[in-house]
Each structure stands twice: as structure tokens, then as C-alpha cells.
Amino acid sequence: MDDPGSRMHAFAEQLFPICRSITGDGLRESLRLIGEQIPIAIHGLPSGTQAFDWTIPQEWVVRQAWIRDKHGEDVVNFRNHNLHLVGYSGPVRARMSLAELMPHLHSKPELPDAIPYRTSYYKDDWGFCLPHRLLGQLKDEEYEVLVDTDLVDGELNYGELLIPGSSDEEFLISCHCCHPSMANDNLSGMVIAAEIASHLIDRPLRQSYRFLFLPGTIGSIAWLARNQALIPKISGGLVLACVGDPGPLTYKKTRHGNSIVDRAVESVFNGECPSAEIKEFMPYGYDERQYGSPGINLAVGCLSRSSYGSFPEYHTSADDMSFITAEALRDTLEKLEKILFIVDRNMRYLNLKPMAEPQLGKYGLYGTTGGVRTGRSTEMALLWVLNLSDGSNDLLSIAEKSGIDFTQIHDASQRLVKAGLMRELRD
Ligand code: ZN
Questions:
Q1: pLDDT of res. 374
Q2: 349 C-alpha to center of ligand 1: Å?
Q3: 59-152 CATH, one of 3.20.20.140, 2.40.50.1070, 3.50.30.90, 3.40.50.970
Q4: What is the architecture of the domain spanning 4-56+155-344?
Q5: Ligand 1 centre from 315 Cα, in Å?
Q6: What is the pLDDT of residue 319?
Q7: Per the confidence metrics, is the pTM higher than 0.85?
Q8: Ligand 1: distance of its center to the CA of 80 in Å?
Q9: Residue pLDDT, tens place only, 200-254
Q10: How many CB atoms are closer than 10 A to CB 358?
Q11: Which DSSP string corresponds to 397-421?
């Protein structure tokens, strides 16, 4: 499959039926499939391990779960949809009245045909989720309930891949992989992260790129707790979530608000995404809130299309494979490529001939380049880069001030370096 959009959509389709949670076989199987695409290492942390203020939970094992009416007919059965069972439900085998059952049933009246997604990770509870229409049809009779699950000591798994660049400065790309059978949240983030990693592997890079495929919240907290020594090397990062629906792109800024990733996203959005939206940081959402907690303070933003909670299908069975499209996945991937190009190549340079303009013709930079007549915009890019490369402007700010596209400004800088007219400045 040559088209990356179709390839990512097909990969999401393969992952869709797996019953993922924050631990367990479904998560491991998903990581194993990602490992078939890119060479991630799969790590495991034993249940009970402390990670800052949190404890790695036991593994959730689910065999079967159903509710049957007095005729022995299934009312709901986990076998038909992963979302029917509240995640981390503890074991139950009981007969009960509708009134006793009701507190354990969850539906979404605004979307009466969809099954909502509920979890009970850190408290001992059980429950079923079902379409509101079906809930309304339940008769006042006795029901038989079976939740055949276990909580066992095991491990919490996550996938990690470091793609080395020429410097050991690192950029994080993080996505959560703990949601069962929902496409936009979270398969879209997983497949785009895997796809872009496969592109970066073959590319010369300045920064190193660290990809994390983690269960939400506990996964990023555990990773941060284990990798505190790496934190000073991380220049920034992006969480990818809800990146496959046809809505316009949305970006939630980092806690810093004006880091290179914030500026790079803004530049790409301004240039080619007229309907995209940029939101300020807030300590809610996905794992950017862990990376951006005050003691960690990494500049990690969150890239989405329709952001969490903003679409009615969010956290329901209606967030299915028809909700994400190959076109939207491809579009997100293309914009992400551009954002990462800026993040990777944004440097500061020093003009080594700042006393008046250098005579560009002498260096083969004026009028013709390699025998080809250069356009006026190429010349303008050279002049802007020379003029503003006094040590105080990085390439992105030269692009912003000149109104010239970053790739053109970057090209000009590389030609000026080659000609011996500029050198790179390191902090
Ligand atoms: Zn979610």
C-alpha cells in the first residue's frame, strides 16, 4: 500500500477489535503489532511498583461478561463489543432486580444508539455500558449477571523507540494506547506515531526522536519516574490524540506557551491550515499534563483534529472505523512532518561578513545558482537570512519576520553556510 493514509487506516482497522486497557494482553498484543511496523522495545513494570504518587496497578484479565434476562437471553454480552464492560470491572456472579442492576448500567442519552466507554481503574467496581435505547427497553424482572474477570499481579507495558539524530537533544512523541475499540481516541494517534517513526528512521536528523506508546496517565507517569535523568535532554514534544477525524486541526499549547514546538505549529497552521485552532495550555486532557506538571515542566503540546470531548462520538462506540478517514490521517501526517522539520532544523546562525552586504556574486549566490537563474524570492531569502543572522534570531523568527516559508529560509541558510558566509551558533 503506497498511500500512507490508507496504510494507517488499515493498521487502525487491524488494531480496532483488540480489547486494550491500561494493562494486560490487549495492550501487549497492540504493542506487538506496532513492533511489526517499527522496532520498539516493549518494557514491563511489575504491579505494585511505585511511580511518584502512583502505584502500578494489577493486570486486568477478562474472560467473559454478560447480563441475561429471565428467559436466558443476552441483554448485553462483552463478546459483541469491548465497550459493553466497564474497564477494570471486578468479578460478579449474581441474580438481581432491575433496580439493583441500574446503578451498574451506563448509557449516553444524547447518542441513544451508541455504547459509552467507562472505566473503573482505581476503584473496585463493576458495570456494563449499553445503548440508551436498549436501557429504556429493560423490563422490571430478575437478571442474571456474570462478570468473569480477575485482577492479577503482572506488569504495565509500554513501547519505546529512540531514533538517534546527530545531537543528543531529544524530542518526544507520545500517544496513549489503552482504549479498547475506539478509532479516533486512540488508534489514530498510535498509527500516525508509528508511520512518522518509520519515515524518520531513514532520515538525517539533528535531534533524536523518542517515541512512547503508553497507557494513558499511569504510563507516562511511570515512564517519567523511571527516566528522570533524560528530562534535561528533552527539548519538547507532542502528544498525538484524536488525529484521524475529518475536522480541522487543533493544537493545545505547551505549558511554556512559546517553545519551539508551539512556534512551529503556529507557523504551519498560519501557512496552510486556515481553519485550524490553537488553544492555551490547561492541566487537563492527555499525557501532556504529566509532561507539563510543574516538577517535570517539559514543553509538550497536544496535536488533535477534533479535540477530546468536543465531538458527540467521543468515548463511545460511534468513534468507530468510519469516524476516521485515510485523508484526515494523511493530512495530519503531512502537517506533522512540516512541524517536525521546523523543530529539527530551527537553528541560529551568525553572519560572518556583517560589514555591509557580502558581494553575493563572488560566492555564486547571486543571479545564478549552479547555472540556473534563481528567482527573486530565493534572493530575498538569502538577504533576510544574512541580515537577521546577527545571533538574536533563529530561522523560524526570520521566516516569521520575512513572511517567507521556513523551508526556503532553511535552504538559504544552508547555502550561506556552504559558501562560508555563516556559521551555526550553539547555545
Ligand atoms: Zn480517551
A1: 60
A2: 42
A3: 3.50.30.90
A4: 3-Layer(aba) Sandwich (3.40)
A5: 6
A6: 98
A7: yes
A8: 21
A9: 999 999 999 999 999 999 999 999 999 999 999 999 999 999 999 999 999 999 9
A10: 21
A11: HHHHHHT--HHHHHHHHHHHHHTTS
